[in-house]
Amino acid sequence: MLRLGHPARVSPSVEAHTLDALLEKTPEHQLARRWTREAVALRRKARARFERGQIGHRARREAFG
């Protein structure tokens, strides 16, 4: 059984059957979370370098689109 709806409005006894809870258990979700953390870290690193003047505007534009 799967419960769809707003996760904040779910009672604790049914929480394990929500789509959010089921997806969090998948290896793909864990991989996506890891990639997101890595992307955030890379952006922070690049931003720090840009703010210190180590990366020019053109290089930053190419890196971030």
Describe this entry's structure for a reader:
The model has no long low-confidence stretch (mean pLDDT 82). The protein has one domain (7-64). The chain has helices spanning 19-24, 27-51, 57-64. It is elongated and about 55 Å long. It has 65 residues and is mainly alpha-helical.
- Taken from the alpha-carbon principal axes, the silhouette is elongated
Order of SSEs, N→C?
Answer: HHH
Return the domain count: 1
Distance from N terminus to C terminus (CA atoms, Å) equals: 43 Å
Number of helices: 3
- Characterize the biggest β-sheet: none
Oligomer: single chain
Q: Average pLDDT value?
A: 82
Percentage of residues in DSSP E strands: under 5%
Low-confidence blocks of residues: none
β-strand number: 0
Cα-atom radius of gyration: 19 Å
What is the topological layout?
Layout: H1 19-24, H2 27-51, H3 57-64
Give me some keywords for this one.
65 residues; mainly alpha; 0% strand; elongated
Task: Write a short abstract of this structure.
With 65 residues, the protein is mostly helical. Helix content is 60%, strand content 0%.
